[in-house]
Amino acid sequence: QVQLVESGGGLVQPGGSLRLSCAASGSLFSILVMGWYRQAPGKQRELVAGTTSDGSTAYPDSVKGRFTFSRDNAKNTVYLQMNSLKPEDTALYYCNAHYPHLDEYPYWGQGTQVTVSS
Length: 118
Hints:
Layout: E1 3-7, E2 10-12, E3 18-25, E4 33-39, E5 46-51, E6 57-58, E7 67-72, E8 77-82, E9 91-98, E10 107-108, E11 112-116
Parallel strand pairs: 2-11
Antiparallel strand pairs: 1-3, 3-8, 4-5, 4-9, 5-6, 7-8, 9-10, 9-11
């Protein structure tokens, strides 16, 4: 069993930055495949940073060059550094995890709200 707890969300002005954190409990964190998703009101949940099969990170065009995913296995934590934030980045951001080859059994955090507004 894996528990995920996100933090770091908040209200930020356009052009600002935030760093989200996701702390994971449970075993074998280092092999977990981690990612970040977001869901804006009235929209479907979308991937914003995902780990590919070769271990690299993939980003959608909407956040590429602005968002950076990282992980610290010693702290059982992943991060999402978000720069040059735009109002359209406003959403509830979720951390996602699954064990390799078990992506049909994902774990989710409770989400952290990011609001970009002047």
